[in-house]
Write a structure and sequence with these properties.
CATH superfamily: Gcn5-related N-acetyltransferase (GNAT)
Shape: globular
Number of domains: 1
Low-confidence stretches: none
Helix content: 25-40%
Strand content: 25-35%
CATH architecture: 3-Layer(aba) Sandwich
Distance between the termini: 35 Å
Structural class: alpha+beta
Largest sheet: 7 strands, mixed
């Protein structure tokens, strides 16, 4: 059964953990080359997805032609992760995932983004997110300057 190239969004399942882990790892290294090299193996990241992410967050996956091509993870009103396979960037997939997150967030959504991640910042700002604060990196593992962005439902989109 083919999706004819259409992308659909569904909730993630336990069986998706290994693919989510692969997307997480490849997307981070492709879109954020300034991050330290990944020290964890695919198996370790898969276990983290299974044991932490799938238990703590609501996760949506983007599926095209029966293949998962991206995911978004929401913990309360905090968008913890939104990653895509590098080959599908700039095709509207991130917007579809973000729309699913926002539909399930009646009070709005916050997220942290590295200040260096100008592409992600531009993406979120184009979707109505505004800067709440900035930090020097003392609140993230990577110790890189970041910022908190917030979208509220009645903000201009």
């Amino acid at each position: 059964m083919s999706d004819d190239g259409k992308t659909r969004i569904r909730f993630a399942e336990e069986a998706d953990a290994a693919v989510i882990a692969r997307i997480h790892m490849t997307s981070r290294s492709a879109s954020m080359p300034y991050l330290p090299p990944q020290k964890r193996s695919h198996e370790q990241v898969t276990r983290w997805v299974q044991d932490v992410l799938l238990r703590r967050c609501r996760i949506w996956v983007a599926v095209r032609d029966a293949e998962i091509i991206g995911y978004a993870a929401l913990d309360g009103d905090m968008l913890e992760h939104l990653y895509l396979r590098p080959a599908v960037r700039r095709q509207g997939v991130g917007t579809l995932l973000l729309d699913a997150v926002r539909r399930h967030s009646p009070d709005g959504v916050c997220l942290h983004v590295f200040q260096q991640n100008t592409e992600a910042r531009a993406f979120y700002e184009s979707h109505g997110f505004t800067v709440l604060d900035t930090s020097d990196g003392d609140r993230n593992m990577e110790k890189l300057p970041d910022m908190t962005l917030r979208w509220t439902p009645n903000s201009v989109q």
